[in-house]
Amino acid sequence: MKLKLFLFALLGVITTVQAQNSGTVSGKITEKTSKAPVSYATVSIKDNGKVVSAVNTDDNGEFAIKSLALKNYTIEIQYIGFRKYIGSIILSDNKKSATVNVGLEEEATQLKGVNIVAERSTIEQKIDRKVINVGKDLTTAGASASDIMNNIPSVNVDQDGKLSLRGNDNVRVLIDGRPSNIDPAQLLKQIPSTSIKKIELITNPSAKYNPEGMSGIINIVLHKNANTGFNGSYSGGITFGETAKYNQSLDLNYKTGKVNFFGNGGTNFGTYFNDGLIKKTDKTTIQNLDISNENDSYLYKIGMDYLIDDHNTLSFYSTQNKATGLGFVNTDIDYFNSPEEISNVYQKGRYEGPNKTGTYNLAYKHIFKKEGHTLDFEGNYSTTEETQNASFDTETIKTDNTSNRNIYKDFINDERKLSTLNVDYVNPLNEKTTLEAGAEARITKTENNYTTENPFAEFPVSNYTYDTNIYSAYVTFGQKFKKFSYQLGARFESYKVESNLNYGYKTFNDDYITLYPSAYLTYNLNEKNTFQLSYSRRVDRPSLEQTKPIREFSTPLVTSFGNQELRPQFTNSVELNYTKTLEKGSFTTGVFYRSINDPISRTLRPDELNPNKQIMSFTNYDHNTSYGFEVSLNYKITKWWDIQPSIDFSSINQQGVVFKYDETQITKSSAEERTVTVAAFNARMNSNFKATKRLSFLLFGFYRGHVEDVQQERKEMYKIDIGSRYTLLDNKMNISLRFNDVFNTMKYAFDTQYPYPQSGQFTWESQTVYLGLTYNFGGAKIKNLQRKQRDDNTSKDGGGMF
Fold first, then answer.
1. How far apart are CA 457 and CA 455, in angstroms?
2. Do residues 756 and 280 touch, judged by C-beta distance below 8 A?
3. How do 62-69 and 22-31 pair as beta strands?
4. Exposure winner among 289, 299, 498, 606, fewest CB in 10 A?
5. 3-state secondary structure of 38
């Protein structure tokens, strides 16, 4: 026993002596211009070129390296998109600790008081998201956020502007960490590309996020101005296609004393054209579609931050959106050898109506004395009204040259009201441990009123409501060690939905309580190699458009309806990601696996009342599994040439019921169980060439492989874009020019046997020329106030910050 006590005492003495003869290096890394903390920067301590110890900065940009021998060292600090910092440190008996606070400079030239966008975009892999810092190469892609999305790894945008992530369109879109009542396809067309600071792909979100979006979250972070005085920027552009389309935006900021006022406004207007051809091979029927949409949209935001003191901030903002649209869909159907003795059907469809959305937000933030210890309260209310006046003029010509005409009108009015209240709390318990918790109430009320003169309509006049009440609470707990960190979380949610068609004629109710767990594990092999393993459970709930049993759109051969009894689909997702920091760039890759219960998918079946017509709707299938991988590289080959290639692949097992029309059967159509493996492959290459200090060129290539799903087989798609940009007026002005789809190869083509043998092709104005200009004005010295950080709302998105 005495021997054990002696050994323990000896060990304590040795430990004490060792501690007394070692030193510590600590500090904080920030962005030099904005003073914002730089998270996950690599800090390396070197002795004669060899790494002695290395760590990553935490969410606050802070780091600490202990137990260093007392001697001279070199410290290196690296972060993608910023210049490497190299300094020297001396640890001795007289100075056993050193503090290193560094402001990193971006690779692009910086001007005081003006947002200067980096020349090239960079990609970062953080613990729960991939971050694309938008450079001039992406803003040159086009006028709006929608135009640049196809340049982002793993993201696709179809001809209608609908987003998909990793081959799945069940994706949630946030703007500055907040959702919007505006349809994402419409919203992205209204956000100027020059207003985007970064795009975050959160493919496996933690429990602190609302769980919607099976394939994950796309968060678009806009530029914010934190400078004192008056500052602003203007951007405008013209897209030349069949006709010219115009866009412009103005961002203004005025900061004085404790108050910061900010506002921005943007407009987009022009006429867009689409063409379609669908051929039924069993009856030799050809359907031609000529589509045009004349759209005018206005989006503006105004708000203020009031710094009560260094620990309390009150913020308010309002976003208003108004869009007017006039669309024409002309359908020409030629029949050959028709048993119904019909030779031609011609329909003129006209759709017109304004859409209005207003959002109002009030937020309060309290910063405790301890660094990183915060409490947020936020309330949000938004209302949307969409009105559509439609008219249809259909003429049917028979083989004997006789004809009949059917003319009728439709009226649709949609109203949505969204109210949210949430609280978020963050407490760093110590240097290694962080606790986060929050709660939210989210109430959505929707109502659809429909009136039609169509004599064949099941409901000439109808009222449909779809209301949801969601109450949730979450907690996450994380710890960081030298090379290892983890985060565990859980979100508890009570969900209730009530839908009602025609005041009780047909109702549907669902009410359940469920748990959404998440887990993250990060391992830093060394300063340049990081592995991340994550798990999450998510949900994709039916939308109003997917559930309302009322016409969504109609042509002589296709009518779309919703399914009132759709159930939510749940997804369990596992991901493994690897990031390697290179001397001239970075390399990221990852694999994922998903198990999906009750997946929601489109269906296409013959109309029981008219076998020549098809009904498009939605249904729940039993179970799907999905897996895939993605690889991206961001590499600067020379001072004047950098490349950003990326590929992604996804595979999903789809099982569902399809309908096949058979002339020999009495019932004319039969249901068929079909199982396929849907494989999707995408490849991108973005290359930038800097000719002079002011002039640069870019080359972009895109390829999407063919895809076969339960319903149809989609053909491959590909294109090549070229562009250039020129800066002047001391980098305050930027002029960009881009020729999209140089060889006019982007087309959407398909083949299918369900419910009829048919093939088709749709084309749109993919071959365009975009000319854009951006000008930054104003400027003053940055004042670092501890106010509500509107520049990084995503880190505070727990509970559903809007």
1. 6
2. yes
3. antiparallel
4. 498
5. coil
Using an 8 Å Cβ cutoff, are 359 and 380 in contact? Answer: yes
Distance CA 591, CA 628 (A): 6
Burial class (CB in 10 A: 0-12, 13-18, 19+), 403: middle
Number of neighbouring beta carbons within 10 Å of residue 394 = 17
What pLDDT, on a 0 to 100 scale, did the predictor assign at position 382?
93
Sheet holding 97-104, edge to edge: 62-69, 22-31, 97-104
pLDDT computed for residue 328 by the predictor: 95
Q: Is the pLDDT reported for residue 7 higher than 70?
A: no
- The token duo for 99 is 């503090």
Query: Are residues 28 and 60 in contact, defined by beta-carbon separation less than 8 angstroms?
Result: yes
Which DSSP category does 111 fall into?
A: B
DSSP state, residue 218: E
Q: Are 174 and 164 in contact (CB under 8 A)?
A: no
Residue 531 contacts residue 578 (beta carbons within 8 Å): yes
Residue 251 CA: distances (Å) to CA of 162, 199, 433: 27, 19, 39
Cβ atoms within 10 Å of 624's Cβ, excluding its own: 21
Q: Per DSSP, what are the bridge partners of residue 738? A: 723, 770
Whether 571 contacts 594, CB under 8 Å = yes
Alpha carbon distances (Å) from 234 to 69, 193, 778: 54, 12, 11
Collect all residues with Cβ–Cβ distance below 8 Å to 229 and sequence separation of at least 6.
113, 254, 255, 256, 778, 779, 780
Both tokens of 737, joined, read 């020019």
Q: Which amino acid belongs to residue 250? A: L
Mean per-residue pLDDT of the chain: 81
Q: Which residue has the higher pLDDT, 74 or 669?
A: 74
Edge-first strand listing for the sheet containing 42-47: 50-56, 42-47, 72-78, 85-90
Calculate ∠ Cα 680-712-629, nearest 5°.
Answer: 10
Give the pLDDT of residue 669: 61
CA distances from 14 to 8, 21, 52, 761 (A): 10, 11, 22, 78
Residue 224 has pLDDT above 70, yes or no: no
Whole-angstrom distance, CA of residue 323 vs CA of residue 267 = 9
Question: Residue 45: helix, strand or coil by DSSP?
Answer: strand
Distance CA 245, CA 247 (A): 7
H or E stretch at 185: helix 184-190
Spatial separation of the C-alpha atoms in residues 323 and 319, rounded to whole Å: 14
pTM equals: 0.73
The number of C-alpha atoms within 13 Å of 267 and in the hemisphere containing its C-beta is 8
* Pairwise CA distance, residues 478 & 257, whole Å: 37
How far, in Å, CA of 688 to CA of 644, rounded? 9
Contacts with 8 (C-beta within 8 Å, 6 or more apart), sequence order: none
Eight-class DSSP state of 376: E
Report the pLDDT averaged over residues 636-652: 88
Q: Give the count of beta carbons closer than 10 Å to the beta carbon of residue 693.
A: 9
What percentage of the chain carries pLDDT values higher than 90?
29
CB 78 within 8 A of CB 61: no
CA 168 – CA 680 distance, rounded (Å): 10
Q: Which among 367, 136, 144, 349 is positioned nearest to 238, based on CA atoms?
A: 144
178 has a pLDDT exceeding 90? no
Single out the residue of 64, 65, 66, 77 nearest to residue 30, CA to CA. 77
User: For residue 286, what are the β-bridge partners?
Assistant: 279, 334
Q: How far apart are CA 659 and CA 207, in angstroms?
A: 40
Q: Following DSSP, what letter does each residue of 532-557 receive, concatenated?
A: EEEEEEEEEPPPHHHH--S-S-B-SS
Phi then psi for residue 15, to 5 deg, are -65, -40
Tell me the CB-side half-sphere exposure of residue 351, using CA atoms within 13 A: 20
Distances (CA, A) of 800 to 178, 440, 534: 7, 7, 21
What are φ and ψ of residue 119, in 5° steps? Answer: -60, -50
Please give the Cα distance from 767 to 316 (Å, whole number). 42
| pLDDT > 90? residue 293 | yes
